[in-house]
Structure formats: C-alpha cells, structure tokens
Amino acid sequence: MRDKEEKQDYRFMPEPNLPPLRLIMDSDDTRCRVNENLVNVSELRNQLPELPAETRKRLVSQFGLSQEIAIRLVNENALLEHFNSIMKENENRNSKLTANILINELLTVLNKNKLPFETRMSSQSLGEIVDLLTKIVIGNPNSPSKLVEMLGLFQISDISEIEKICAEVLKQNPKMVEQFLSGKTKVFNSLVGTVAKTTNNRANMGVVVEVLTNKLNNMKSLKKHV
C-alpha cells in the first residue's frame, strides 16, 4: 500500500458541477424568490402526493371506514379512484355502503366473469346505485349477478348476437371493408376495435375475431368470383 500523502492532499474539494444547497425550513418563500439557490422545504413537502399511510388515515378519519377497508382500497388503485370520485361527486353519500359495493360486490362480479376493471363502468353510474340503495328504491343485491345486470356488465359471448353486431359494423364501415379486401389487412384491427367500442368492450374478442375473419374471407371469395 502506498504511504499516506500530506494532510493537504485530503482537504475538502467542492464539486464544481454541484452548486451549494441552502435550505429554508419555514414557509416564507420570499427569500426563495429573491435567491434561486435557496430551496424551500415546506413548499416541496406540500407538492408531494398523498402517501399510502396518509390516504389510509384520511379514509378512516374522513369517511369513517374501518382500517381493513381502508387498506383494501389503498391496495387497489382503481377502486380508490372510483371511491374518491363517487364521494367527491356527492359528499353526503353513504361512504361505508360505497366501499362495500366496490370491494364485496363489484370485485366479486368482475373476477367471476373474468372482466377487466375498466369494463363499461363509470363512477357516476356506481354513485347512482349507491344513492338508490341508500334510498331503498331497490333492495340491496342478494348476489353479485344483480349488480352486473344493473350495470350491464355481462360479457357478450353468444355467437348469433356477435354475428349480428359484426355484420352491422361491416355495413357501417364500407371503406375499411374495401381496404381489407384490397389487401390492406392491418385495417382488420380497426374493425375489431369498432366492434369493441360498439359493445362497450363487452363482446368476447376471441369470438369477434373469428366471426369477422369468416365474414371478410367470405366477402373476399365472393369478390374473386365476380
């Protein structure tokens, strides 16, 4: 090992590319506006998003939810967004009933029917259901399937129904059909997307692809024989 150098070789050397960091701990940012090298810690703290622990605490204190329910909502970001939107739209809504429908009813329905969380669903429609249940206009769903029926979430898998939908989409989009028949096969994805949009993403996409493929191939064969 080399011998230690003289003590001056160990002196502090400031990094020229890193300017000095000067912090202000109070909320007065007047000096920060005058001197750009000053960093206001309070202002930075206020700009931070709500942390999970803070969100759980807010759900318990503001909405009276149990710690367990608060944890479930925070762990499922899509559920939390729906809950916040529903309650923001009407702060007088029953928060416990809202959380119960989202966690115990809606998730069960979606998992059972293998549906994505985004399937034809809005916070407004869910909020309306909460209001109806609160006013006892309708009874509390005895099974998740009733909630699915109310929201129209059932997946369309019936071939005859999908064939009608696909036929109508092809009829309404002759330009895309002509492009496909002329060899521009990439337009097929647009046709599939149109069916998905028409059915609010409820159609079984596997069946849709099969039906559209058969119909377009039949149209291609007819065109060759003309």
TrEMBL record:
UniProtKB keywords: ATP-binding, Ligase, Nucleotide-binding, Protein biosynthesis
Domain Asn/Gln amidotransferase: 81-216
A Pfam family: GatB_Yqey
GO biological process, one term: mitochondrial translation
Source domain of life: Eukaryota
One Gene Ontology term of the molecular function aspect: ATP binding
Annotated catalysed reactions: L-glutamyl-tRNA(Gln) + L-glutamine + ATP + H2O = L-glutaminyl-tRNA(Gln) + L-glutamate + ADP + phosphate + H(+); L-aspartyl-tRNA(Asn) + L-glutamine + ATP + H2O = L-asparaginyl-tRNA(Asn) + L-glutamate + ADP + phosphate + 2 H(+)
Protein name: Asn/Gln amidotransferase domain-containing protein
Annotated organism of origin: Diploptera punctata
